[in-house]
Amino acid sequence: MRDVHEQIGSSRRSAGRPGCHAIRLGFVAFLAFAGCTPPGPATASRPGSGSGGPVHPVLGGESLPGRRARLHDWVLHPRVVAAERDAGPARIVSGAPNVTEICCALGLRGRLVGRTRYCVYPPEIAKVPSIGALNDVNAETLLGLRPDLILVAGTSRMQVERLRALELRFERVPDTRLDDLFVAIGRIGALTGRPRTAARLCVAIRSDLAAVDGEYRERVAGTRVLLVTGTLATPPRPPYVAGPGSFYDDLLKRAGCRNVVGQRQSAFGPLSLEFVIRADPDVIVELDADGTARPAGDADALRAWSRLGRLRAVRHGRVHVLQGPQHFLLGPRIALTYRALCAAIGEHPVSDTEPRRFPLGRRSASQPRETGPR
After folding, report:
1. 56 alpha-carbon distance from chain centroid
2. Among 120, 186, 212, 364, which residue's CB has the most CB atoms within a 10 Å radius?
3. Is-contact 340 363, C-beta < 8 A?
4. All domains in the chain, ordered by first residue
C-alpha cells in the first residue's frame, strides 16, 4: 500500500488517485483493560454502564435504528498496563499517521519527538515537531531529534534507503491487510516494551469491530460495492480502487458484502471505466480526505458518477462519500471507518423527494463542514 500521506494528498485532487463474527457487547473492551492505568480526565461516567466506573467517550454520530455499537477512541484515551509505563525507548519518530495513532493508543504520546506533516491526530500531536515527510526530510532535522527508534509503515524502498544511509535505527510495520493492523500493534508494542498493552489493545479493537458486525451485517450482506480510494475525476478517468488484498476489501468481506473489483486487480490501483460499467455495482463509496473534492458530499459524488450513464448505484441514489483523513488509515480507529462504510452501504435507496440521512463520517451539502479528523 502506498504511504497514507500520498493517499490523502492525492484525494485532494479530484483525479481519484490513492493516497489506505460473533457479536460482542461494547463493554468487553472495557473489561479487557481491567488493571490498566486509569483514563485521562476526559473520561466520563455513563449511567447504566454496569461497571460502576469510568467509560471512554463513545465514537458515535446520530442514532440509527436497531443496536448501536459503542466504539472507543483508544488513540485519545489509551489504557497502559501499569508495569509497562516506564519501559521502552525514550525518543521515537513516527513516519506515518497510522503509526502515530498506534503509538498514542499504546500510551506513547509523550515519547514521540518527531512526526510527519500528515500526522494530525490526536489534536495535541501538533505540538510534536514535524519532520515533513520521510521521503523528503532534511537529514539534519532528523538527526537533530536524536531518535532511539524510527517507525515507518509499508515497504517504501525510498524511505528504507534514506534511513539506512543516515545509519539510524528504524523498524517497518505492515499496513495493507486488516490483520496487518494487529501485527503492527504487536510489533510496536514489542519494540517499545509494551507487549501486554498491545495485546489488550488488539482485543479492544476486535471487540469494536465485532460490535459493528452485530449492528450492520444482516443489513448489508450481499451488497455489491465499489470502493474508490479517492474521488472520480471530471471528466471521468479510471478511478483508483480498493481491490483484493486491501484492508478495505477485508472490511467488505467481514460485513458480508461483495467487492465488484475482480481477483486479478491489485490491492490498490486504477480500474477501467469499462469495467465499472460492466460490473454495475449496487453501491459506490468514495473517500475524500478533507471535503475539498466533494464539498456538497453525496450530492457531488452522485453528480460525478451520473456522467458514466445509468449505473444501478446512480439510479438508486446509492453513491456516497466518506470524508475525513481517518478513513485512509489502517489504525486503532479502524472500527470508526468500518461503521461509516457499513452505514453508507446500508442506507436504503431513496427517491429525489425523500429526505436523506447522513450517518457518522458523512455530510450533506447543508451540513457545516468540520475541520480535522474526528
Report:
1. 19
2. 212
3. no
4. 22-203 (3.40.50.1980)
Do 65 and 357 contact (CB within 8 A), yes or no? no
pLDDT at 362: 52
330 grid coordinates = 489502517
Mean pLDDT by 10 residues, the chain (374 residues): 47 40 34 38 29 31 52 95 96 96 98 95 96 82 94 82 87 96 98 98 97 95 98 97 98 98 92 97 97 96 96 97 96 97 83 39 43 36
Of 225, 185, 254, 230, the C-alpha closest to 327 is 230
pLDDT of residue 62: 35
Of the candidates 290, 310, 313, the one whose C-alpha atom is nearest the C-alpha of residue 301 is 313
For residue 157, the surrounding DSSP H or E stretch is helix 157-165
Residue type, 256: G
Instruction: Please state, as a whole number, how many other Cβ atoms lie within 10 Å of the Cβ of residue 13.
Output: 13
- pLDDT for residue 349: 58
Helices 97-105 and 4-11, packing angle to 10 deg: 120
CB neighbours (10 Å) of residue 22?
6
3-state SS assignment for residue 293: coil
DSSP 8-class letter at 72: E
Strand boundaries in the chain, DSSP class E = 58-59, 71-72, 92-94, 112-114, 149-153, 170-173, 224-228, 240-242, 258-259, 268-270, 283-288, 319-323
Match 472507543 to its residue by C-alpha cell: 72
As a whole number of angstroms, the longest Cα–Cα distance in the chain is: 63
Other beta carbons less than 10 A from residue 144's beta carbon: 13
- pLDDT score, position 348: 64
Which residues lie closer than 8 Å to 316 by C-beta, 6 or more apart?
A: 282, 349, 350
* Contact status, residue 282 vs residue 267, Cβ threshold 8 Å: no
β 149-153/224-228 pair status: unpaired
**Three-state DSSP class for 145?**
coil
Nearest to 338 by CA among 254, 219, 230: 254
Backbone angles phi, psi at 115, to 5 degrees: -150, 170
Contact 329, 4 (CB under 8 A): yes
In contact, 215 and 61? CB cutoff 8 Å: no
Q: Which three cell numbers stand for residue 63?
A: 442514532
